[in-house]
Design goal:
Length: 181
């Protein structure tokens, strides 16, 4: 018998001062059995940090050639490719050819991966935005993960504050460029 996805209902009050985005999000996110909690948390954080009209989650592992998140315009054209983790240089090369904007949210230590990317040939490598989430922050948020949860997320100068009823978690997002630091 095949395992099915676990559905998470996450309500987020988003206040992204850096981009002037203030929204109340009601997300319904599916987690495939092969997906780690850390990866799910990174996807949710990336959704919030990239939130704009047209953003959406992909079909997941059933369509591995698509990014985990993307932004599409009203015609259905992909304008932003948003990846999670440490994608290979070839995938980023393809992404940069398909979308005007490419962003990656890494939830593990990115040092070795960035070193590998620096020697790789990628289309518009200097324009690929890499956002390194602090692994300890992602793990702490994953430890609080429940199938129905709510929190506030404030973003100011790259600083994240996740506010629950009983506790707060804080972190910074380090920014890098593919092929550079």
């Amino acid at each position: 018998m095949a395992l099915t996805a676990t559905i998470y209902n996450i309500d987020i009050d988003l206040a992204d001062v850096d981009r002037g985005v203030y929204e109340t999000l009601a997300l319904r996110v599916a987690r495939h059995p092969s997906e780690s909690e850390d990866y799910l948390v990174a996807r949710v954080l990336a959704y919030c940090l990239e939130f704009e009209e047209g953003i959406g989650f992909s079909n997941g592992i059933s369509d591995p050639d698509d990014p985990p998140l993307s932004v599409r315009d009203l015609t259905g054209t992909m304008t932003s490719w948003i990846d999670i983790g440490t994608p290979e240089a070839g995938r980023l090369h393809k992404a940069a050819k398909l979308a005007r904007r490419v962003a990656v949210y890494c939830h593990k230590d990115p040092v070795q991966w960035l070193r590998q990317l620096s020697g790789a040939r990628m289309h518009r490598a200097e324009s690929i935005a890499i956002h390194a989430l602090e692994p300890s922050f992602v793990r702490a948020l994953a430890a609080r993960l429940t199938r129905r949860m709510a929190f506030g997320l404030s973003v100011t100068d790259g600083h994240l504050l996740v506010a629950f009823d009983d506790a707060n978690l804080e972190s910074r997002v380090a920014r890098h460029v593919a092929g550079g630091s």
